[in-house]
Amino acid sequence: LGDHPAALLAAARHRAPDRVARHLESTADALLAFQHTVLPLGDEKPSAAHRSRLALAEAAGTVLAGGLSVLGISAPDRI
């Protein structure tokens, strides 16, 4: 997520929208690999760590939606 601004700038500088698409794909892959390992299990109560992970997921969603918008693609409200 921290590389997103630099990835957008590099793509614009080189006029290479494919760089944005590859960056979004790697971001989505990282989030998908991450999310299944950190969700609360069963009746486990959410903790501060869970809330932090949720905030990270929301930030990733914002980055993905913004990146898709740059490419002219409408992001779904919910996946």
Describe this protein's structure.
- There is one protein chain.
- This protein is an all-alpha fold.
- The protein has one domain (1-30, 45-79).
- The chain has helices spanning 4-13, 17-38, 48-70.
- Helix 1 runs antiparallel to helix 2 (17-38) and helix 2 packs antiparallel against helix 3 (48-70).
- The relative contact order is 0.16.
- The model has no long low-confidence stretch (mean pLDDT 85).
Low-pLDDT stretches: none
Could you tell me the strand content as a percent range? Answer: under 5%
**Mean pLDDT value:** 85
The biggest beta sheet is recorded as: none
Sum up the overall morphology in one term: elongated
Give the quaternary arrangement of the chains: single chain
Helix coverage percent of residues? 55-70%
Order of helices and strands: HHH
Question: How many beta-strand elements?
Answer: 0
Rounded to the nearest angstrom, the radius of gyration is 15 Å
What is the terminal-to-terminal distance? 19 Å
Total number of domains: 1
Q: Give the helix/strand class.
A: mainly alpha
Write the layout of secondary structure elements.
Elements (H helix, E strand, L loop, with lengths): L3 H10 L3 H22 L9 H23 L9
Helix pairs in contact: 1-2, 2-3
Please tag this protein with its features.
0% strand, 79 residues, mainly alpha, 70% helix
